[in-house]
Write a structure and sequence with these properties.
Length: 252
């Protein structure tokens, strides 16, 4: 499992008990608002269906979800103000970073993102500078218990997984957009399998190995970017040492 994937998995676990739950709900609500522009019926709008599932997994109140859908579908007054912008940049050790945002003020967002990169010793890049090294994929992380991870992985391949990485009891699956949801449903139905996270992600084609010093700097950059109100998701091609990831997992 790549270092960045470990970061993503640990981050999702922390989010379940994150003291900044209000900020988490705001980010999910924004995703629901934008997704609902494509239709308010989750049965026919996959992006909305996924956003709602993310909200429910985070224990987001149903009234918050319903309100966000209403705003996005035109019933509310501010859904149309949000704009999707992706920023590209370089982080410590020459790592590539993709920052997906939803904002009602792109000047503010660009300034905030640029400042985070500068503080870490990185810098923003022009559009296309690093995105060529990433591909859109569905990524599902699961925890297994009471079963053989290898057998579970092979069963998932039959259900549409294109690739998988096993580390202990954790498995990361990658799937195409078409196979993403059927695979998620199949995994949820398997005994001894808990879906920890499921998202559409920018997956790097190659990884950049970092020493411990650069890895800690890169982790700080990724975390501070994600803490920005306008940032929805952050992806990188960083490969973190196991020792650094163990420290990160133990940190509060």
């Amino acid at each position: 499992m790549s270092g960045h994937s470990k970061w993503s998995t640990i981050k999702h676990k922390k989010a379940a008990t994150d003291a900044r739950r209000g900020q988490l709900f705001t980010k999910i609500a924004r995703e629901i608002i934008v997704a609902a522009r494509g239709g308010a019926d989750p049965e026919t709008n996959f992006r909305l269906r996924l956003a709602i599932q993310t909200g429910k997994s985070a224990n987001m109140p149903n009234e918050n979800i319903d309100r966000a859908i209403a705003k996005g579908s035109g019933v509310g007054d501010d859904g149309a103000e949000l704009e999707e912008i992706t920023y590209e940049g370089y982080g410590p050790g020459g790592t590539a970073v993709m920052v997906q945002t939803l904002t009602d003020n792109k000047n503010r967002t660009a300034s905030d993102v640029r400042q985070m990169f500068s503080r870490s010793g990185g810098n923003l890049a022009a559009a296309g500078a690093v995105s060529w090294g990433f591909s859109n994929s569905g990524v599902i992380n699961v925890e297994t218990s009471g079963g053989d991870p290898e057998e579970i992985a092979l069963e998932a391949v039959d259900a549409g997984a294109e690739d998988f990485d096993i580390e202990g009891t954790t498995i990361e699956f990658k799937a195409s957009f078409t196979d993403f949801e059927p695979l998620k449903v199949a995994l949820e139905a398997m005994d001894g399998v808990e879906v920890v996270s499921a998202e559409l992600a920018m997956v790097p084609s190659t990884l950049v190995e970092l020493d411990e010093s650069k890895a800690r700097q890169a982790l700080r950059l990724l975390d501070t970017l994600e803490e920005l109100d306008d940032v929805q998701k952050v992806f990188s091609n960083a490969d973190f040492p196991d020792e650094v990831m163990a420290e990160y997992a133990e940190a509060g």
